[in-house]
Amino acid sequence: MSDSSRSSNPRKTFVIDTNVFIHRPDAVLSFKESDVVIPLWVLEELDKLKTYSDERGRNARHAIRFIEQRAQGGNLSAGVKIENSSILRVALDYDQNAAEELDISRIDNRIILTAQKLDRSEKTEVFFVSKDINARVKARALGIKAVDYEKQKTSFTRLYRGFLEGAVSRDDARLLEEQQRIPWSGNLLDNQFLTSAEHETIGRYRSADSSLSWVDRYEHGVFGIVPLNVQQRIALDLLLDDEISLVSLIGKAGTGKTLLALVAGLKKVFESKVYTRVLASRPIMPLGKDIGYLPGDKEAKLSHWMKPLYDNLELIISQHHHGELKNVETLLKSSKVELEAITYIRGRSLPRQFIIIDEAQNLSPHEIKTIVSRAGKDSKIVLTGDPYQIDTPYLDSDSNGLTFLVEAFKGQSLYGHVTLEKTERSPLAELAAELL
């Protein structure tokens, strides 16, 4: 098929890989007025995945139901028109003549060869869409145009930081500290922070009355923890504000994300009594988002995966003496602090809880949506993570759920974000974060 004959036809054909459906079950709706092709072997893989109890299984089942509902409108092998004016069809064969180039015993290779056959026979431009980098590389090696699924991607390098440095003059800084709140004009987002040139004064912009409110220095600390830099002060201001229901903290290792979130949660539960419990969780990645085969009951298994949270709790207890904070074991038995695997959060209603999701960069946009939508009445959710350290193969710094959430929520009155840039754990930790 010549490129000139294809250029005269603006319609395009997209061949969808299995992992795209796992990332977003209704992904076919992203391709408007196009031919959307699902290789038969994608359905085979979805069928195997549907029995999984984690997010992959749920998304596989959702994708199968989605496809089945559209199939009721006609013959999938011939093509069915769907609501975005695209034609959805299932391809039943791959290029037999090219089979010797790839091992056809592997399903992912059959999917790629299906795209190759369509590329050689279709009158439209054909694209292979996959979240798998290696699959895209193999497809390109066979001369197929291969692209990532971009619908829920945003540039991490240009991501909203939550603050502007040096935006407050000395005179305004002095006035802000004296009056605690001053009128402010400018093209700013709600809950965006401004600092003075010396970083001594920080103000938070409030769009409701176009004002700048002073941010406490927290010189006496919170539960024994004193903020060590401007971003940590901003983080505490958001974490301790009951009007902010959703907070995201992004930063490399050692910037204090998890520590600050736990400190704020403990203060709000044990002293302010705004929330009934701190619920802390993190994705369990090494064994496929499952608790795995470690010995013992759920608590014994979780203790291995939640060790970073235990370490931070031990540090807080060592810095702050409180009647109910004698040691981590006593704290967890009090029912005011709960460590839970993310797998078990789905389906729960979580009212009046301070919810911390650590390592949130390992979650997809769909998983983030599931978690945030679990928040019950008067609850607060804090998401922490480092988008440069991702342990799941189909996400990157631009497509993970944490990055997506920051871009989607910025400027909302009930949301606040800050990127923590300086490692405070130790000089060695900061050097490692920079060099390794």
Radius of gyration, taken over Cα atoms and rounded to an integer in Å: 25 Å
Average predicted local confidence, pLDDT: 87
Helix content: 25-40%
Low-confidence stretches: 286-291
Strands, total number = 17
Shape: elongated
Find the structural class using helix and strand composition. Answer: alpha/beta
CATH superfamily of the largest domain: P-loop containing nucleotide triphosphate hydrolases
Counted up, domains total 2
CATH structural fold name of the largest domain: Rossmann fold
Q: Record the strand order, biggest sheet.
A: 3-4-2-1-5-6
Distance between the termini: 48 Å
Report the major sheet: 6 strands, mixed
Task: Work out the oligomeric state of the chains in this entry.
Answer: single chain
